[in-house]
Amino acid sequence: MARKLPPLTALPAFDAAARHLSFTKAADELLVTHAAVSRAIRNLEEVLGTRLFERHTRSVRLTPQGAAYVAEIGPALDRIAAATMAASASRAAGVLTVSTSDGFAGRWLVPRLHRFHSAHPDLDVRLSTSGVHADFIRDGIDIAIRYGMGDYQGVVSEFLADEDVSPVCSPSLLEGKHPLRTPADLRHHRLIHDNFQLGWEKWFHEVGIDDIKPDGGVKFDSAVYAVEAAVYGEGVLLGRSALVSADLAAGRLVRPFDISLKSRWSYYVVYPEGALRQKKVKAFRDWLFAEMAA
C-alpha cells in the first residue's frame, strides 16, 4: 500500500523554522532564501489543509497543529539522517572524521591520538577544526567534541568533562628578578590571552585584585598559540585544564599558585542519533571517555 506522504522537500524547511521560530534563521541553516522557506511551508500547509504557523510582522509562532506535527516530524528526520549517515559511511568504513576546536585538537587530542591508532590500526582519523559547529550530514562528520552547555539540537550529546582555568607559565618565571609567588606578582609579568570567554578580568575579580590591567599583554585567536607562548616564557596564560594538561604533565608548564575557577562550559561528545551502530564511531567514543578518565 502506497504511503500518503507530504512534499518531502518541504519538511526540512518546516522543521528548521519550527526550531528557530524564524523563517530567516531556517533559511540561513538550509542555505536557501527566506522566500524558499516561506513557499515550502505554505505548500505544506495547503497539502495538510491546516495552518502550521501564526505569522506576525516580525515573528512566527507554531499553531497547536504545527507543534504537534513537528513533534513527530523532527525525530523522523533525525532517524532519516542517521540512516543516511550509516549507509554512506559504509563506503569509507576505515575513515573516521572528527570535528572539534583547534585548541582541543592541538593541545589534548593530537598528543593522545597515537594510542587510538595503536588500538585501532584499521581506522584513519580525519580532524576538522573549522571553528564552527559542523553539519554532520553535509560536512561528512562522524562524531564531534564540542565545548559549551550541551544543549545541541537534533543530536545525541554526552557530557565528557568539566573544565577549570588557572594561571600557568613556564617554570622559568618562578625564578629571576620577579618570581611568581602570589597573584599580586602578576603585575610584573605579561598576561597572555586566548579566545576563551572566561578571561583575566573575571579571575582578578575572584581573587580580589583590582590594580592590574586585565586586558593588557599579548592576545591570540587560537588557544594553540596561546599555550605555546606560555611554554616559551612569553608570559602567564589563564590556562584551560584540558588544553594544558599535557604540558603540565611534561613540566613545560607549571601552576604558580593553586587558585582555579570552574568554567560554566564543559566538553561534550556529540553525534547523530544511531551513529553508535557504526563500530568506528563507538570505538572512538569509548576511547575518548577512557582517555578523559585517565
UniProtKB/TrEMBL annotation:
Family per record: Belongs to the LysR transcriptional regulatory family.
Key word Transcription regulation present: yes
Glycoprotein listed as a keyword: no
CDD domains according to UniProt: PBP2_GcdR_TrpI_HvrB_AmpR_like
Domain HTH lysR-type as annotated: residue spans: 6-63
Pfam family, one: HTH_1
Signal peptide: none
InterPro entries listed in its UniProt record: LysR-type_TF_proteobact-type, LysR_HTH_N, LysR_subst-bd, WH-like_DNA-bd_sf, WH_DNA-bd_sf
Name of the molecule in the record: Transcriptional regulator GcvA
Alphabetized PROSITE patterns for the sequence: HTH_LYSR
Keywords per UniProt: DNA-binding, Transcription, Transcription regulation
